[in-house]
Amino acid sequence: MSSTEQTPASSEQQQQQQRVRKPPFADWPTIKILTPPQGRFSPKTDEWCFTYCSQSVSGRIHSKEPNCRSICVRKVFPHEVQNILSFKRHQVLGADGKAKYPLPKEGQSSNLPRILGGTSKNDSEDQSQSRATSSGSTKYWDEGCYLWTGKSRWAMLQKTDNMMLDLQKQQQAETMRERRKEVWHDYQEHLKHGAGDQSSEQPETNGKWWGPIIPSKPIPDTSSLSLLVPLPPDFPPIWEKINKLLAPSYQVLGILQESVSSGEQKQFAQRVWEKSKTGEPFVLAQRTFTRAYEQWKNRDVPEEDDGKKGST
Hints:
The structure is a single chain. This protein is an alpha+beta fold. 43% of the residues lie in helices and 10% in strands. The chain has a four-stranded antiparallel beta sheet with strand order 1-2-3-4. The longest helix is centred in the middle third of the chain and has 26 residues, at 167-192. The radius of gyration is 41 Å and the shape is elongated. The model is unreliable at 130-135 and 198-206 (pLDDT under 50).
């Protein structure tokens, strides 16, 4: 009997415990506003690329490289080049408070055309001076958009690899590629000097290269087949070239203005008017036309004389 009496009471307590008071308007439809993460964890797209390749029948038979063209647009956000609160901290900063991450080779002045602010490769300046000033002329990443173009398959492969890295890691990868290239160059110089000749009785243990260890071949340099420019491009000032072109005209106009203000042109016009009243200009013109007519009339005489001498 006791068990049957306790059963309905326990069921009522369980129902009361399950009934939880809901907040006001809990059953009404609601709108949730979610703020996406910013900075390094933002889901925004920062680079868009388009690539197309073509191949010919003969190129496929002879295993030639396909003709590839690529174009990319890269957007650099503020947190990539500046220290922003709660975001990644950059260690190397310039005077303007921005991180100094140099652009790749295809974005430096030595690889850009002159119309985009590049420098000529056949510059007449001394090489020592250019090396001394190269550090000051280095271009760095900045906030904004950049346009990248490539003309080879290798260029696009390196570009896709860089799409997985931030600016700091890209700089580290470029340093590793340069180091790998230097090691390969030293190894080739080592082979040219005959240090790797196997015909010697005793191996050269003092050299840098000994044994079967061969450095890996570096990745091909595609900077000459690529181009990286900011948007909008840094066009050189056009007015400087126009002023340089019109500098002689400015000088002539200045001399003319001085002669007019000093009265020399007025005096010259009065002398011309006084001379025009006399017969001297007409006599000069008559002599000039007479001399020109005589020269034109006698211009074929030497040729006829030469012909007669040749016939005799």
